[in-house]
Amino acid sequence: MPMLSLVNRTLATLCLGVAPAMAQNHQGDVTDVRVIRRFEQHPGSALLWEPYIAAWKPKHLVAAFGAGIPGKTDMGDILASVSTDDGDTWSDPVPVFNHRERQGAIQFAYANAILYHPPGQDVIWCYGMRCPMNYRHSEDSQLVGAYSADGGRSWIQVELSMGYTGPLIVVAGLHQVMDNGQVRYLLPAHRNTRRNDPRGTRDQFILTSTSLLEWTLAGFIPQPESGPPVFLHEGGLAPGDAPGELKLVMRSADYVDERKMTDPPRAYSSVSKDNGRTWSPARAEPDLWNAKSKGFYTRSGGTELYIYNDDVAGVRKSLRYKTKPAGGSWSAEKTFYDAGIKNSYPSLIEVTPGDFRAVWDSGTKDRTRTHIQFGKFRLPTTP
Q1: What are phi and psi of 110, to 5 degrees?
Q2: What's the mean per-residue pLDDT of the chain?
Q3: Strand 214-220 relative to strand 161-162: parallel, antiparallel, unpaired?
Q4: Other CB atoms closer than 10 Å to residue 36's CB: what's the count?
Q5: Sign of dihedral through CA atoms 17, 22, 28, 29?
Q6: What span, in angstroms and rounded, lies between the C-alpha atoms of 230 and 247?
Q7: Is 267 in contact with 250 (CB distance < 8 Å)?
C-alpha cells in the first residue's frame, strides 16, 4: 500500500503539471526547500527573479515571480504558481502580466511582483511595475495591479488610479494600519530618476490607499541629519517599538554613485508616528549589514527579523539573518540559506505566529537568478 500510494501521488503530480523539485544540499535554518521553477522551463527567458509569496488558505500558497527578457536588465513577465500542499509541490505558472499583450499602441514589460491578501477579503492582489518595452531597464516605471479571486489560478488586470504620477520602483510588501477608525494600506516605493538624469533624485517614500485601487503619496523619508546623502530604497515596513509607531528598514547605497556601498555598508531605518505621513530622518542601523541588496524586514510579536546577503556588493551569495527581541539587542549573525550558490531577494509570509513561508531567487556558483526557491522558516525561540 505505501508503494501504491507513492505511485498514485507521482501520477497525480505529473497530471497536474507539478513536480516536487528538491533543492540541493544546503546549510541554514530554512527547511523543506523546494525549487518552484527553473528558467530552462521558460524557453527564451534570460532569468527568473524577485519572487513574492502569499497565503490564500491553510497550506494553499501563491508565489509570483518575474521571467526576464534577454537584453533587458530587469524587465519581462510576471507569473504566478500555486501550491495546495504547503509548498511541497507547485503548479505550472499562469501569467499575471504578459509583455506580449499590447495596451493600445504601447507594449509594456513588467517587474517586481508583490502579493497581498487583504485580511478578511477573498482576493489576492498582485502589484508590480510596468515600463515601455523600448526602455533598457525598469527604473522609470508605473505602478500596475491585478487581482485573483480563485487563489492565484487566474488573474484580472485593473487600471489603478494614481495620485502619485511620477516614476517609481516597488519591491517590498504592503502594510495595513488603522487610521482614525479607517483601514489604510501603505506601500513603500522609491524613485531613481538620477540614473538617467543628472538632475534626478533618489528618494524613498510611502504610498497610501484606502481601497487598494487608488494610491496617493503619504510622505517621503528624510535624509540623515548628518553626513552625505544616502540612496535609501527597497524599505520593508513593520510595527515600531511603541504602540502606533511604524518602522521602515531600507536598503542603502551611495547617493551619487549607486554602484557603491555606503561606508560602512549598513541598512538604514526611519520611524513614523502618524501612519506614514511623516518620518524621522533616516539613520544607519549599526548592527544590520546591507551591501546594495534587498533585505527582508518584519516583526513577529515583539521580535524583529532581518534577512540579508552577507557578501560584498554584486556577489549576493549566502542569506543570513538576525533577530531582536523586544527591548533587547540584535543577535549574532545566523545562516538562513547557504549552498555555495548565488541567492537574493528573500520574501516571507507569516502563516502562524513565528512560522514563515519563504521564497527567494537562486542561481549557480557562477550565474545569478536561474531558479525560484521555496522554504519554511521558524523564528528561533531564543535570540
Answers
A1: -135, 160
A2: 92
A3: parallel
A4: 26
A5: positive
A6: 18
A7: yes
Residue 235 and residue 249: Cα distance in Å, rounded? 5
| Nearest CA-CA partner of 130 in 58, 216, 72 | 72
Q: How far apart are alpha carbons 303 and 300 in whole angstroms?
A: 5
Per-residue pLDDT band for 382 (boundaries 50, 70, 90) equals low
For the domain spanning 18-378, the CATH number is 2.120.10.10
d(CA 223, CA 283): 8
| Single-letter amino acid code for the residue at 277 | R
255-272 mean pLDDT: 96
- Measuring CA to CA, which residue among 23, 34, 30, 31 is closest to residue 63? 34
Q: Is the pLDDT of residue 15 over 90?
A: no
Cell numbers given for 346: 528573500
Going from the C-alpha of 58 to that of each of 30, 84, 85, the distances in angstroms are 19, 8, 9
For the residues 121-145, what does the mean pLDDT come to?
93
Cα 334 to Cα 331: distance, rounded to the nearest angstrom: 8
**pTM for the whole structure:** 0.93
pLDDT tens digit sequence for 74-113? 899 999 999 999 999 999 999 999 999 998 889 999 999 9
Q: 336 burial class (0-12, 13-18, 19+ CB within 10 angstroms)?
A: buried
Report, as an integer, the average pLDDT of 243-250: 97
Q: Which residue has the cell 520593508?
A: 236
pLDDT at 11: 37
> In this structure, what C-alpha cell is assigned to residue 336?
538562513
Which runs of consecutive H residues, i.e. helices, occur in the chain?
2-16
Domain boundaries of the chain, sorted by first residue: 18-378
User: What sign does the dihedral 68-74-80-81 (CA atoms) show?
Assistant: positive
State the average pLDDT over residues 306-322: 92
Separation CA 357–CA 378 (nearest Å):
9
How much is the average pLDDT of 5-16? 40
Sequence letter at residue 376: K
**Phi/psi-derived region of residue 86, left when phi > 0, alpha when psi is between -120 and 50, beta in every other case:** left
